[in-house]
Amino acid sequence: MRLVFKAALAAIVVVLTGCASAPSGPIALAPGAAASGRIGVAMSPVPQVDTSFPGAGCLLCLATASAANRTLTVHTQTLPSDEVAKLKKQLAQVLAKKNKTVTVIDAPIDMESLPSSSAQGTNVAKKDFASLKKTHDVDKLLLIQIQSIGIERPYSAYIPTGAPVAVFTGAGYLVNLATNTYEWYQPVRIVRAADGNWDEPPKFPGLTNAYFQTLELGKDEIIKPFAAP
């Protein structure tokens, strides 16, 4: 039960961190937004690949769902996330091909450690990213925040209401560090079901294939605005 409580608390923290840092809706990349200045490309820490059971709202419900899907969870936690970690360098390469001045920031950006912004206004970031301007000698920050990757199964209290699906949830931000305002914000949520039967333990090949598809599709959604002519 203690592990279940920790898992539930971690999921709440991820959701609250994402809400605290995100604007109210998508912000399209304006022409020329990435055309000038030094751009730092960074990522928040990549979360562990795991299962989640939205709708299993109480601790006992979550414990029941976790126990019923234990074999799936054990397998899911073995799936690699290396392809997600490559996204930062892939974005930098896309920008460099367009003759942008790019710096890859190696260390993950911990959103929780950043102070809240004191400024208010349209598209002003809720977190204060300004300190990163001097630290990394960049004018803009292109930040990728991956919130969850893995397998999700919907529940209503103790009862599953659907088959498990692979998920990729995250967002991309382009922040002007001089004004601490968003010049681009794109939330991403990719969901893929298994082709055919999903319930094939212990390796769950259908869901595993769907998982890798979500990684590629999620990365494409984030790269696409910067790769456009």
Explain how this protein is built.
- There is one protein chain.
- The chain has 229 residues and is an alpha/beta fold.
- Helix content is 35%, strand content 24%.
- It has helices at residues 2-21, 59-68, 70-76, 82-85, 87-97, 131-136, 205-227, and strands at residues 38-43, 50-52, 101-104, 140-152, 155-156, 159-160, 165-176, 181-192.
- The strands form two sheets. Strands 1, 2, 3, 4, 7 and 8 form a six-stranded mixed β-sheet that branches. It has a two-stranded antiparallel sheet with strand order 5-6.
- Helix 5 (87-97) runs parallel beside helix 7 (205-227).
- The protein is elongated and about 50 Å long.
- Residues 1-20 have low confidence and may be disordered.
Beta strand % = 15-25%
Low-confidence stretches: 1-20
Biggest beta-sheet profile: 6 strands, mixed
Radius of gyration: 19 Å
Helix/strand structural class: alpha/beta
User: Helix coverage percent of residues?
Assistant: 25-40%
Distance between the termini: 52 Å
Mean pLDDT: 88
State the helix count: 7
Q: In one word, what is the shape?
A: elongated
